[in-house]
Specification:
Four copies of one chain form a homotetramer.
Chain A lengths: L18 H21 L6 H8 L3 H7 L3 H21 L6 H17 L4 H8 L12 H17 L7 H23 L5 H16 L7 H9 L1
Helix pairs in contact in A: 1-2, 1-4, 1-6, 4-5, 4-6, 4-7, 5-8, 5-9, 7-8, 8-9
Chain C binds a DNA duplex through helix 1 and helix 3.
DNA sequence: GATGAATGAGTATTCATTCAT
DNA sequence: CATGAATGAATACTCATTCAT
C-alpha cells in the first residue's frame, strides 16, 4: 500500500545540545503528529509541519535529514508510548483484562485519533516497523498471547499468537473506525468492545476445530 | 470487480453512450482500482491510471472531470459490490451467519486486497461516503443490526446498531491487517475470526450493563 | 572535482513524436548549452534553462528525467560534433595538419566558447564521458596518435598515445584560456598555436630520451 | 601550501592580530583549499569548510565576511605561491628552462591537484584575478615573455607576450588534464611536455609569418 | 472523440548568512 | 570572541489539468 520509496535515511541529523534546540525538536514532533493525525500521510508536508510548529523549514531540516526520518521519529515515539501503556495492563479475569486493555488503547489514541492508523498503514517507513517481525509488533503480540494463555489455564502455545492477532486487530478496527467518526468516547461502544474481547478470552473451546464448535453450538 | 455498467454518477462528465465509450470507462476504473490497491492513495496519479489503462490522459478527463470524481466512481463500484455480496448473507444460527459473513468479506477483498482500506481510510471524497449517514454505511449497518436482533430473538432496537458497528469494525480490522501482511488466506485466522463474531452474536447478556456482566462472569 | 552524485538516470524520458515536441527538445538543448557555456555548471539551473528556452519547467522534465540527463544530452551532442569535425582533419605535412586541426577546434568552440570545458571539467556525468576509456576520448586520441605515427614515418606505437595527449591537452589549454579571455579569434594566437603543434609533430627525436635530447640541443 | 601569513586582504573582515586568530585563519584557508580541490566549486560550502577546519560557522564569518572573500583569500595565497615558485625558474638553454618550469609547475599542483583549475575556471571572483590585466597574470606572463626574448637573443617585444601565453596555456592544459586523470606524476608525460615547450622556445622562425613557415616546411 | 504536448503551482531539500547565548 | 540554532530564498522535480492538433 502507500508509497514505496527507497529508504534514503532514518536517523536524526544531529543531537540537539542546547535547551533551545531540544524544545525545537519537541515542537516539531508535536506539530508533525498533529498533521499526520488530522490530514493523513498525503497531507503531511514538511512545510506545513514547520509552519504549524512555528519554525522555519531550515530548522526542521537541521534536525531531521528528510521527511522519512521525521515520520520515523514520530512513529518511534508513538509506538513506545503504546507499548508502555500496554505493558501496564494485566489482570486476573478476562473481562477485567479486556476492560483495562480497551480503556488503555482508547486513551492512547485520544490525543491524536488518526495518528496510529496513519503511522501503521499509510506512512512509508525506512525502518521495519511495518514488518511483522519488528520489535514493536513482536512485543505487542507477545503480551496479548501471554494473557490468552493465562486465561486458558495452560502454558503458551503458538495458537495463542493467532488469538493475539485477532484481539489486537479487532480492537484496532473498532477503535480506529470510532476515531474516524469522532465517536471514540462513546461509552456504549467501549462497553460492547469490552464484551467482544471478554467473550473471546473467556471461551473454553478454543482448541476445538471451528466447524465442530460451530456445529455443536448451532445444534 | 463486477462487470455491471457504472451507473452514470452525477460526477461523471458525460454518460458513456456508445459501446466503445463504456468499455473505455470500464478499463479506466479497473486500472484505477489496481493502482489504488497496489500503491495506495499517494501513488495514485491520473497519468499512471491512464497509462495502465492504455488510454491517453485526455481521454481519462473526457469521462472524469477530475481526480476525485474518478476515485468516487471506483468507490461507488466497490461499495456496491460489497453490499450485494453482503445482502446475500443470512442464516439461522450465529455461527453459520458469522461463517458466511467472514467468507464473503474475505472474498470481497481478495481481488484488490488494499483497495477497501484505501478507499475508506486514505482517499478523500467529494461525496459523503465517509459520513456515518451515507447510504452505504446505513444500509450496511442495517443489515448487521437486523441479524443481531434476529439472533437475540426480539424486534430490532437502537442498541443493535452499536453491536452492528462492533461486528463490522472488528471484521474490518482483522481482515485489513491480514491483507497488509499478505495473510488473508490463512484458515486459522478465518476460523478464529468466525469464533470471535459467533461468540459475540450468541451471547445473551447483551442488555445487561457491562459492569454487571463483568462482575458476574468474573465471580 | 566538481559534484559527485550518485547517477540517478541518464536517458531521455520519452522520444518526442510530434514535430512540435522535437522543436521543444531542440530549443531546450540549445538554451542549456548557452547557459552552461555562459554561466558554468554552478549557474546551470533547470529553471533558468526552461526560462531561456521559453518553455515551462514541466516541459523540460517531460523530455529529460533530471538535470543530469539534460547535461548528458548536451554533452553527447557536443562531443559528437567535435568528433565529426576532427575526423575530417588529415593532411600530408605536420604544419598543414596542425593548421587544419587548430582551425577546426577553434571553430568547434566558437559557438559556445565555455561549453567544452564545462562539459569536460565541471559538469558531473552519469555516463563515462570523463572516464579515460570512454568511447569519445579513445576515438579522439586514436585519431591524433595515427597522425603522429604517420608523420614519424613508422607504424603506430604506444608512445604515440602520450604524444596525442600532449597535443590534445595543449591545444585544449590554449583554446580554452583564449575563450576565457574572449580572444579566441586572435589570428596571431592561432598562428603561434599552429607553430607549437607543428614543431612538435615535425620533430624526429621523439624516441630519444629527453635528457639526451636536451643535452644535445643545449650544447 | 606555504605557511606564510596571509596578508590581510582588503576583503578580510578583520586583521587577525593574536596568534590564536592567525592560526584559525590558517586552518580555515587550508580546509577551504582542500575542499575546493577535492570537491570543486559546487561542493564548496561554508559549513563544510568550517566543519573540516574544526571551527564553528560563526568563527568562519568572523574572519571572512562572505563566501567570496574566503575563496579570494585562498586564491591570493595560491597564486602568490605559484609566482614565487615561478620566479625562481630561469636558465641558460630553452630545454633546461622548460625542464625546470615543468617540474616547478607540476610540484605547485601536487598538493591540491584540482585547486588551480577550480580557482581559475570555476570559482567566481569579486576581484579581478581573472581579468587579463590582473597583477597576477601580468607578472606571470612578463616572466615568460622575458625568457622567450632571452632565448631569441633580442630585446623583448610585444610578440613575446603571445608566445608567453601559448607556453603558459599549453602547460596549463597538459598539467590540468593530467591532474584530472590522476596521471600528474607520469614521467613520460613530463618528458614530452618538456619537449613540446623546449622545441617551441628553441625555434628560430618565430618572426616569420606562419603561412610562410608552413609553406616552406611543408615543401 | 482521441491524443499527448504544455503548463505552473506545489513539495522536498540545501546553504549562505545572522544573531542570541 | 566562539558557538551553533535559526532563517528563508533558491533549486530540483511532480502531477493535476488544459487545449491545440
Amino acid at each position: 500500500m502507500s508509497t514505496r520509496i527507497a529508504r534514503p535515511s532514518s536517523a536524526m541529523r544531529k543531537a540537539p545540545k542546547q535547551a533551545r534546540s531540544r524544545a525545537t525538536v519537541e515542537i516539531i514532533l508535536e506539530a508533525g503528529a498533529r498533521i499526520l493525525s488530522d490530514e493523513g500521510w498525503a497531507g503531511f508536508t514538511t512545510n506545513k509541519v514547520a509552519d504549524l510548529a512555528g519554525v522555519s523549514i531550515g530548522s526542521l531540516y537541521q534536525y531531521f535529514p528528510d521527511k522519512l526520518s521525521l515520520v520515523d521519529a514520530i512513529r518511534r515515539r508513538h509506538l513506545d508510548d503504546c507499548l508502555t501503556v500496554m505493558k501496564s495492563v494485566s489482570d486476573a479475569t478476562p473481562y477485567a483484562f479486556a476492560s483495562k486493555l480497551v480503556r488503555a488503547m482508547i486513551s492512547a489514541h485520544s490525543g491524536f485519533p488518526g495518528l496510529h492508523r496513519v503511522l501503521l498503514d499509510e506512512a512509508p517507513s525506512s525502518d521495519d516497523y511495518r514488518d511483522p517481525h519488528s520489535d514493536f509488533e513482536v512485543e505487542y503480540l507477545a503480551h496479548y498471547a501471554a494473557a490468552v494463555a493465562a486465561f486458558r489455564g495452560r502454558p503458551p502455545c503458538p495458537e495463542d499468537l493467532t488469538a493475539a492477532r485477532i484481539i489486537s486487530d479487532a480492537m484496532d478496527g473498532v477503535i480506529h473506525n470510532a476515531a474516524r467518526r469522532g465517536a471514540i468516547g462513546d461509552p456504549s461502544l467501549q462497553a460492547e468492545l469490552i464484551r467482544l474481547i471478554g467473550l473471546y478470552l473467556s471461551d473454553a473451546d478454543q482448541n476445538d476445530g471451528v466447524d465442530l464448535a460451530t456445529a455443536r453450538r448451532a445444534s
